[in-house]
UniProtKB/TrEMBL annotation:
Coiled-coil intervals: none
Protein known as: Zonadhesin-like
Location of the VWFD domain: 1-166
N-terminal signal peptide: none
UniProt keyword Disulfide bond, yes or no: yes
Any Pfam family the entry gives: VWD
Superkingdom, natural source: Eukaryota
Gene (UniProt): LOC102801083
Entries under PANTHER family matching the protein: EXTRACELLULAR MATRIX GLYCOPROTEIN RELATED, VWFD DOMAIN-CONTAINING PROTEIN
Amino acid sequence: MRTFDGRAYTFQGTCWYHLFRYYTDIPCFEVTTMFESREDSTPDQVRTRITAFNVTVGNQYAIVNGLDVTTGSTGGQMTDAKVITIQEDDKHIKLHFISKDTTFPFNWTLRKHVLDVSYNGSFYKGKLCGLMGNADGDTRNDFQKPDSNIAKQVLEFGETGNCMTN
């Protein structure tokens, strides 16, 4: 994993996790990822990989599971302009959305289970949370927990407020 601020770390959780999200009084957008054990995992050494991810922006969503893509609206009928753009080819999916002045591009390569995410813009600087950190330019506070304290260990950070079963 690498946070938006560039902090590299290894995290081997198995759950749906908040990769990143932005909330005001209602969810504006969130990206969740499913981490599952790899075939070469052992009980002593769990190794995980991303197998699926969901992007929700306002009332629109995209669910990517392997190379299967499902899009829709949480309210049933889509009334707003489509905000999540998806391109599919062979074993690769490109997706992006724009919110405020910021573009969030995703590149998903199934063969290697690699999800590359970045952002370009300034509105959300320091306002994000999740496994990708807060995007404020400071790697020292990327492991900030929901209570605003900084986790000292990767496992504590990943499991505190980021795992969706908590």
